[in-house]
Amino acid sequence: MVEQAPQTGSSRGRFITFEGGEGAGKSTQIKLLAERLAKAGQATVVTREPGGSPGAEIIRHLLLSGIGHLIGGSEAEALLFAAARDDHVRTLIEPALARGAWVLCDRFYDSTRVYQGKLGDVSPALLNALQDVTIGAMKPDLTVILDIPVEIGLKRAAVRRGAEAPDRFEGENADFHRKLRDAYRQIAAAEPERCVLIDAEGEPKLVADRIWLTVQDRMLGWPQAKPPGKPGAKGRGKTKSKAKARSA
Ligand code: T5A
To answer: Which ligand 1 atom is at minimum distance from the Cα of 109?
Structure first.
């Protein structure tokens, strides 16, 4: 967990989650968004799942080593992810939101729905029960779903990993990863008010510009700027400072 800027304001913060397949660029994009929000004067907390709090980080090791799956398949994994999430939400996410910080989280309950639900065949009844216990009615204000062809995502993940062995999920076959991508696209289509599907191909800065447009529009209430790569950057600067003054 990384606190990016001094705290400002006293109202409840915003909760933004990032989702997508392996190597989609979530960690990279969260960092870039946190930098932009810091420049805009907004305090952010960057965190991840599984993990993010000391207790949940211990469970992360069990999960990524594959022990959870060995013990009891996808259901056991779902229980472990839920236990980690419960600790993470109670000890880190809720307190940060309550003090007005924006929380940027690398994966959240959509990952459980996709990996353990759609791909692991854990029943919706169990997933709903776990969701009730861990997060109740709390939902992300925005979920950024990074969409990328499977081959590109897996190549990126392999580069990042270097000589290390693939973890329990990276080691699944290409068909698994294709189903994963479809499942995320279905969530984006089913919940357009919460989710946005972002094309994650291209240079990190270009992808960051796409995300920033959405955040300005949906979270900051800034008037829509021109799409990245098109003329009009000057106009964007103006829009920003006007909107900043308005929200102050
Ligand atoms: N899981 C998680 C579940 O099954 N259920 C759950 O409920 C939850 C919460 C977590 C695993 O747990 C599973 C899903 C996961 O398999 P993890 O180690 O946290 O595992 O891994 P991931 O979340 O999959 O994250 P990755 O690190 O694999 O990918 P990211 O964060 O999407 O990508 P990132 O930013 O690290 O980038 C990967 C590489 O690509 C480069 C980066 O520099 C890096 O080397 N890159 C780009 N290269 C070119 N162009 C771009 N635009 C690039 N963006 C990044």
So the answer is: 7
